[in-house]
């Protein structure tokens, strides 16, 4: 994996441990020689992640819509800052520049972005793996909701299994790498996920 797109909070959250996690992830990606593709801002966990990756000598590509430059304080120190016109362009450029996608703790924007790339993978629009960094069980309530949806038959078990989930970065990178190069298309009649 050459580059990982990371979606995460543009705010800090209440617990400073999340900023610590973002910093560790940024530094670890740089040490492993994996380039970071992210939303290009300096606010919240996004800024912490990018600063840590840069400080450790990593490549950081930020992608930000012109209208968000002030709101998220575009990061001037990144390796490459791509300024685009719309949110749709931002996501398309991020998807194009990365080999895989991961979500760290975040809010609505993070959810929207990770769900979009996961649903695109299910539809076969790309074959890049998608995962959640489930630090401290942050995503457990969401995963519970997804298992509930799967039990109704609206989300294939194989699609839920296709989402890489791990409590730490090394585990998540392994899970993503296992899925690299393998497109996911749910089989017809694929059943619900086990509870
Ligand atoms: P949040 O998780 O809400 O803090 O947002 C994380 C990132 O997602 C920020 O860079 C937001 O600008 C971005 N974002 C929010 N909504 C969208 C959207 N609809 N499409 C693409 N990116 C978004």
Protein architecture, described:
With 195 residues, the protein is α/β, with parallel strands linked by helices. The protein has a single domain (3-179), classed as Rossmann fold (3-Layer(aba) Sandwich), CATH 3.40.50.450. 43% of the residues lie in helices and 16% in strands. The chain contains seven helices and seven strands; from the N terminus they run E-H-E-H-E-E-H-E-H-E-H-H-E-H. The protein has helices at 17-31, 44-55, 87-97, 108-123, 140-151, 157-162, 169-179; strands at 3-7, 35-38, 60-65, 80-84, 100-103, 130-133, 164-166. Strands 4-3-2-1-5-6-7 form a seven-stranded parallel sheet, with helices on both faces. Helix 1 runs parallel beside helix 2 (44-55). The chain is globular and about 50 Å long. It starts with a strand and ends in a 16-residue tail after the last helix. The chain binds adenosine monophosphate (AMP).
Structure characteristics:
binds adenosine monophosphate, Rossmann fold, 43% helix, 7-stranded parallel sheet, alpha/beta
